[in-house]
């Protein structure tokens, strides 16, 4: 992978590319979830190397893209991503977002309609407000205090066990948390959930205007993600595939299955 940087007014965003597949190959853009870094998609970057042009980032305030002030919105993320993709010549990306990355993908498609070739959601859910009860949106604004109230020695193993079902998935999540001090982690998590609440309450009326696929771990216990995916597929008609034996970080828990699903999806775009 080639390490790259993109400078914004607030800080430097780090991302990685693999363009060994050549100029005619599709672009797969991997977007990790809240508090995770680019290593969440190591198995996908390795699998698709030479088969597709790939890009994965550490979102602002994540991983190597720190320090970065917590003053960004979901749309800010989408705009930064758009600028990065433009600079790389990735004009028709397939957006593959896990959790927060799925929300960023939808904001991207809302702001830049007609530019995405496809969208794969991994353990994420819709940005349309109508699918969320009011209490849940309000709860999103109070997660920082809840996290701060939990001792760090307990929060780290709970976070790892809540995000993944396999030893490799839990080790991967624990590695992200070990990279933070407690206060920084809680501040970032709290800002991320508030950012999601703001995006939901913005009243956006977008439609996903490209082929899409929903992937969700059959053992995902993160909030109501499984229920939201059932409602999302029923309400929007987007195919939903359950990832066997996987939790919230399904692409780490069962990378072989997820990679096959992404492969089939991308192949279908050219059919």
UniProtKB/TrEMBL annotation:
Taken from the UniProt entry, a GO cellular component term is:
membrane
Q: Which superkingdom, per the lineage?
A: Bacteria
Keywords for this protein: Acyltransferase, Hydrolase, Transferase
User: Among its keywords, does the record have Hydrolase?
Assistant: yes
Query: Does Hydrolase count among this protein's keywords?
Result: yes
Residues covered by the AB hydrolase-1 domain: 28-258
Q: Which Pfam families does the UniProt record give?
A: Abhydrolase_6
Annotated GO MF terms: acyltransferase activity; hydrolase activity
Name this protein carries in UniProt: Predicted hydrolase or acyltransferase of alpha/beta superfamily
Q: Which organism is it from?
A: Slackia heliotrinireducens (strain ATCC 29202 / DSM 20476 / NCTC 11029 / RHS 1)
Query: What phylogenetic lineage does the species belong to?
Result: Bacteria, Bacillati, Actinomycetota, Coriobacteriia, Eggerthellales
């Amino acid at each position: 992978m080639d390490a790259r940087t993109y400078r914004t007014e607030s800080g430097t965003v780090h991302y990685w590319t693999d363009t060994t597949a050549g100029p005619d190959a599709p672009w797969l853009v991997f977007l990790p979830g809240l508090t995770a870094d680019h290593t969440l998609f190591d198995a996908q970057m390795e699998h698709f190397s030479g088969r597709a042009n790939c890009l994965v980032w550490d979102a602002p305030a994540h991983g190597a893209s720190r320090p970065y002030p917590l003053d960004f919105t979901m749309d800010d993320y989408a705009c930064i991503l758009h600028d990065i993709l433009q600079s790389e010549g990735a004009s028709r990306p397939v957006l593959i977002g896990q959790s927060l990355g799925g929300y960023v993908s939808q904001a991207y498609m809302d702001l830049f309609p007609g530019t995405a070739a496809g969208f794969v959601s991994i353990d994420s859910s819709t940005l349309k407000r109508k699918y969320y009860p009011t209490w849940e949106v309000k709860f999103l604004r109070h997660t920082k205090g809840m996290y701060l109230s939990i001792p760090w020695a307990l929060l780290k193993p709970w976070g790892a066990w809540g995000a993944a079902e396999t030893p490799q998935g839990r080790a991967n999540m624990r590695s992200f948390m070990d990279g933070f001090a407690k206060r920084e982690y809680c501040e970032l998590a709290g800002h991320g959930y508030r950012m999601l609440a703001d995006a939901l309450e913005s009243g956006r009326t977008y439609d996903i205007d490209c082929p899409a696929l929903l992937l969700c771990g059959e053992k995902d216990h993160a909030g109501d993600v499984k229920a939201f995916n059932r409602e999302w597929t029923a309400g929007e008609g987007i195919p939903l595939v359950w990832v066997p034996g996987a939790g919230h970080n399904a692409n780490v828990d069962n990378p072989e299955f997820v990679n096959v699903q992404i492969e089939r999806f991308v192949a279908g775009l050219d059919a």
